[in-house]
Structure formats: C-alpha cells, structure tokens
Design a protein that fits this description.
Largest sheet: 5 strands, antiparallel
Number of strands: 11
Number of domains: 3
Radius of gyration: 33 Å
CATH class of the largest domain: Mainly Alpha
Number of helices: 14
CATH topology of the largest domain: Trigger factor, domain 2
Structural class: alpha+beta
Strand content: 15-25%
Low-confidence stretches: 440-444, 449-475
C-alpha cells in the first residue's frame, strides 16, 4: 500500500492511497463469500451461490462495490496508523479508480489537530494590578452589611419615594379594553428600579398607602410583545402597601451581630483583611487572564471549523443549563429575544473560537515546558467526584472512565501551565508583593462539568467538552 499525506488548509490533510490489484481481488473473493451467506439465491444453499448469480440478484457491480467499501475502510484505518494521524472528524472519501485487475486508488480528506507555532509568552510588559483598599472601601462594605441586615417598616406619615418597597394593584387598557398581562392584584416592586414600563413608577412616587392614580404611558419601541411595542396605554393603579428600609445602627452591637467581634473596630479590621486577600486573589486571576491573552495573540495556528463547531455546541449546552437553573425554557428565551438557535450559534462562535485557541495554546506550552499531571492528582479528582456526586451514578461513571480521566488531566494541566507562568514572573520580580497561589480550580475539573450540563445531560456535555479538549491536546 502506498500512502501520501498532503497538508491542506485549516489543518486538513489529504491522504492519497493506492492498493495493489491483488488486494482488490482478495477483497472481491471475500465479498462473494460473505454476500452468498446472507443472500437468498434460488437453487443455492447459503454460502454456495456463485458470483454471477449474486450480481444477478443484487444488481450488476454489487459484489465489486461491497469489496471496495470494505477495502477502503480497512486501508483508510491502516493509513491513519502508518502516518500517525488522529482525525478530528469523518473523512471525505473519493474513489478515483476501482476496476478489477487494476490498483485501487482513492483519497481521503480529513481534519487533524492544528499545528501551533508559539510566539512569546513570557516577556510581556504588564504587571499585576492590585486594588488599593482604603477606608472608603471598608466603609462601603460595612454599609452593604447594614443594608443586607436591614428591616422593613410600614410607612404611614409620608408619600412614596425612590427606594421604598411597594405593593401595587393595577389594570391596564387600550382604547377602553383590557389587554392580556396588563393587570395584577398584588405586584411587589422597589421604587426606582424601573422594573416596569419606563415612566410607570413616576406616577406611584408621591402617592400614600391606599391612594389611587390614573395615567397614560407608552410602551417602548423594543417591547417584547409586538402588539404593544410603541403603543400608549391607560393604567389605573392603587398603592396597597408601602414600606421603607430601616438600617441597623452602626455601633458595637451591630458588629457583634455579624460574628465574633468585640466592637465595630474589630469588624472593620476583619473586613479590611478580607478585602486585601480578595484584592490579591483578583490581581492574580486578572494577571493570569492577561498572560493567556498575550500568549494566544502571539501564537499562530489554523483552526479547523470542526473544533469551533464542537465548542459552540458545548457553549450551547452551558447556556441551556444556565436557563434551566433560572427555570426558563430555551423556547421561551428565544421567543422573548426574537432569536433562533442559529442566531445563538452565530453569537457564540467568536467566543468559541477564542476558547479553542486558549485550550490549544496552553496545551502546547505544557508540551514545550514539560508540564505534566500525575496519576495520583487525577485519582484525587476522581475521588472528589465520587464524594461530590454520590447520588449520580452516570456522572461518576463518566469521571471514572478513560475519557473522564483524560478530561480531568487536561484541565489540571492547563491550570498548572497558567500558575507556572505567573509564578515564573513573580520569581523574576522579587520586588513585587507576593500574590496568593490560586488553588487548582476544582470547579474546572469536577463541578464545572456537572454545572455546565445540569442534571441528566451532564455526561453528554462533559463528553462534548472532552472531544474538543482531547482533539487539541497532545497525548
């Protein structure tokens, strides 16, 4: 067998394969034997019908066609092994010559893992940026704690204003006729958040509990219901309840209610420490992201569409899971946004392409730098999966499979690459404040797979993500 591999555009390869005539002859003989066993030919026992009778029953050329199909499949697999090629997709096969007594000639075009030419990924001219924690920053967080622990009290001695919690009843109509969805008995809202039609809440501000108002407002031009978009409507509204937020006093008693704090000063000290730790962690995360962007921008590769398509599907699975957690069906979302699945895929595609580039570049850096992940580290993540998802046998089965372990290994390795680059920069710049080491992101290995898929679809999405990762990651 002669095999010639020719690189093509977008990480494609064309295999030109030629087999000697005698191999086609043997394949024809094999096809005669197995077709005669499974084909009923009048006057012949199974396996005894001659070739000319098979062609008469099955059609002229049926035996040769069967032989060529089997021989092409076998030869294609042998060619992949001979050239050490790992295909990303099903090959497009074109038979150029298939005549008995002559060599069988065909070609196969397929996509392979893209070759990556790394550029500079070390000598960047930016530094980690650490947010300065000031007294004003601490004040803001303490105020947020007060807001979170506020109580609501009825308002009886004044009119409604922005920031108040209100309960209203309303009826909407157009030309004297109520329209669907235009009324509610009890609608809670926070005045000033503009949850309803623009301008609607302005007519509630200034009312007292128990008072009513009538007014006209116009629906925005981009309103989801096309029949109402840009149209005026009349509303009758009653302010049924009005409450205001009462913040706790800022004193030592409040501090004690927040935890084991002797006084307000102790609470502020602890808040500052937490903010400073968060600032260092955020600085490292942001610095890591910039290093990845720098490495990807300097790398050269020719991505096949198949990898981007796979990542789009993974992102679609993640999007469905996000909607499901919010108890929104995809159909309802598409209707509300006037989109189709095709529109979503177009929207996902640029980010999907970037995600694939990141994965491939980090994998290549790991290969160049000799960064590996031990079997013990992988097994530790598998054990975490067993404990975290003890009630989900299907998901645990995925993580325990070879594909699941490969996914864990590649994810851990990419995390190690990023930490390696950050730690290398910090070592070369001892004057810079130390940054806490980001823990190996467990949600990137175990939890993220289940979260990106959600419920019974977890394994399917995990396998889709793994297909992309394994295709782009050296073994």
């Amino acid at each position: 067998m002669n095999v010639t591999a020719t690189p093509g555009p977008r990480s494609s390869v064309k295999l030109d394969i030629e087999l000697p005539a005698e191999r086609l002859t043997r394949a024809v003989d094999a096809s005669v034997r197995h077709l005669s066993r499974r084909t009923k030919v009048p006057g012949f026992r199974p396996g005894k019908a001659p070739r000319f009778m098979l062609d008469r029953v099955l059609g002229p050329g049926a035996v040769l066609e069967d032989a060529v199909d089997h021989l092409v499949q076998d030869a294609y697999r042998d060619a992949l092994v001979e050239k050490a090629i790992l295909p990303l997709d099903q090959a497009k096969i074109e038979v150029e010559q298939a005549e008995e007594g002559k060599p069988l000639v065909f070609n196969a075009t397929l996509h392979v893992r893209p070759e990556v030419e790394l550029g500079d990924y070390r000598h960047f001219n930016f530094r980690p940026e650490i947010e300065e924690i000031t007294d004003a920053t601490v004040d803001r967080v303490v105020d947020e704690l007060r807001d979170q622990n506020a109580t609501l009290a009825p308002v009886e001695d004044r009119a409604a204003k922005k920031g108040d919690y209100a309960v209203i009843g309303y009826t909407g109509s157009r030309d004297g006729t109520a329209f669907p969805g235009g009324s509610a008995e009890r609608m809670p809202l926070i005045l000033g958040e503009e949850r309803l039609i623009p301008g609607f809440e302005d007519h509630i501000t200034g009312l007292r509990a128990g008072e009513r108002a009538e007014f006209d407002v116009t629906f925005p031009d981009d309103y989801a219901e096309a029949e109402l978009a840009g149209k005026p409507a009349h509303f009758e509204v009653e302010l049924k309840e009005l409450r205001e937020k009462i913040l706790p006093e800022l004193n030592d008693e409040f501090a004690a209610s927040m935890g084991d704090y002797a006084d307000l000063a102790a609470l502020r000290v602890d808040v500052r420490k937490r903010l400073e730790r968060n600032a260092l962690d955020s600085a490292r995360h942001t610095f890591s992201d910039r290093i990845i962007e720098y490495a990807v921008a300097n790398a050269t590769m020719d991505l096949p569409d198949i990898l981007i398509d796979q990542e789009v599907e993974v992102m679609h699975d993640e999007f469905r899971a996000t909607l499901a957690r919010q108890r929104i069906s995809q159909d309802a979302y598409l209707k509300a946004t006037n989109q189709s699945e095709e529109d979503l895929h177009k929207e996902f595609r640029p980010r999907a392409e970037q995600r694939v580039k990141v994965l491939i570049v980090l994998s290549k850096i790991a290969e160049v730098e000799g960064i590996t992940v031990t079997d013990d580290a992988v097994e530790a993540e598998v054990e975490r999966a067993r404990q975290r998802y003890a009630g989900d046998a299907r998901l645990i089965g995925y993580f325990e499979s070879e594909r699941g372990r490969n996914f864990i290994r590649s994810t851990l390795r990419r995390s190690k690459v990023v930490e390696y680059l950050v730690d290398g920069w910090l070592a070369a710049h001892p004057d810079h404040p130390a940054l806490p080491h980001i823990e190996d992101d467990a949600t990137g290995t175990v939890e993220a797979v289940a979260e990106s898929a959600g419920g019974a679809d977890a394994q399917d999405a995990a396998e889709a993500a793994t297909d992309s990762a394994e295709a782009a990651t050296p073994a």
